[in-house]
Amino acid sequence: MTGKDVPGLEQARATIPPGTRINVTFLGNEEPQARLAAARAVRRSGFVPVPHISARRLRSRAELAEFLGALRAVDAVEDIFVVGGDPAVPHGPYDDAAAVLRSGLLQEYGVRHVGVSGYPEGHPAIADGVLWSALEDKVRLLREQGLRGSVITQFGFDAGPVLTWVEALRERGVDLPVRVGVPGPAGVRRLLTYATRFGVGTSAGIAKKYGFSLTNLMGTAGPDRFLHTLAERHDPARHGELGVHFYTFGGLAATSDWVAARRHGDDGDPGNHGGHGSA
């Protein structure tokens, strides 16, 4: 959710299981107070707030410390997600997520668990070798600093590349839990817009496999087929612990209603195979 989604959270709270992890994004056009209000609302609603920290958007070490202190004051600092962020040029001293981990400030302010990014289909602006090196560096830093961690992947429409990537991750010795990024139900046009922005594959074959058509952008699509395929092909011996992270492109209420329906057995129950959930 973003800082603007507090009303949506209130609308959706009845269908979200207590203790669900809900990420609070770090948008460049939102003030820190909006992020803090969202994190406070998540905690007040009985869920676990996971505030994002965008490394390249931070202007100084003092700004990072101030934000962590404010999160601690609203009981929302134990679980965070650290990402490099969009700016091509860092606004301050942190050029990537690893730099934030090296700062030493996370433990000082009470962070216990850190989520980091994974990119099963690569990144439009970063070479694969650099992505793997950066992820391994972050995992090493988490271990050295005694922080628990997990990986949240970029969303996609094809379960095959996700499982191939997870297997490669395990072969590199990374045993952190992985939360597979899944688009919540949303309009096809909106899904394609986000896919283009983040370099996610949307060929005609992938679209058909997922359950929408590139020639009809007026409908909506949900991740039923994706999750069923993920569940069927998941091999704990090769892929380790997998969970699900929903990207709520269609809104918190639409995603929570969709998940609730599947949890109660409508149209199958892929959620039972997907492990722990978050939004």
Q: What this model shows, in words?
A:
Helices cover 42% and strands 16% of the residues. The chain is of the alpha/beta class and 279 residues long. The strands form two sheets. The protein has an eight-stranded parallel beta sheet with strand order 1-2-3-4-5-6-9-10. A two-stranded antiparallel ribbon has the order 7-8. The longest helix is centred in the middle third of the chain and has 17 residues, at 128-144. The chain is globular and about 50 Å long. Residues 268-276 have low confidence and may be disordered.
Number of strands: 10
DSSP helix fraction: 40-55%
Structural class: alpha/beta
How many helical stretches?
A: 12
Main pleated-sheet profile: 8 strands, parallel
What number is the mean pLDDT?
Answer: 91
Rg, please?
18 Å
Q: Specify the oligomeric state.
A: single chain
Approximately how much beta-strand content do the residues carry?
15-25%
Low-confidence stretches: 268-276
Biggest β-sheet: strands ordered side by side in the sheet: 1-2-3-4-5-6-9-10
Envelope shape: globular
Features:
279 residues; alpha/beta; two-stranded antiparallel sheet; 10 strands; 16% strand
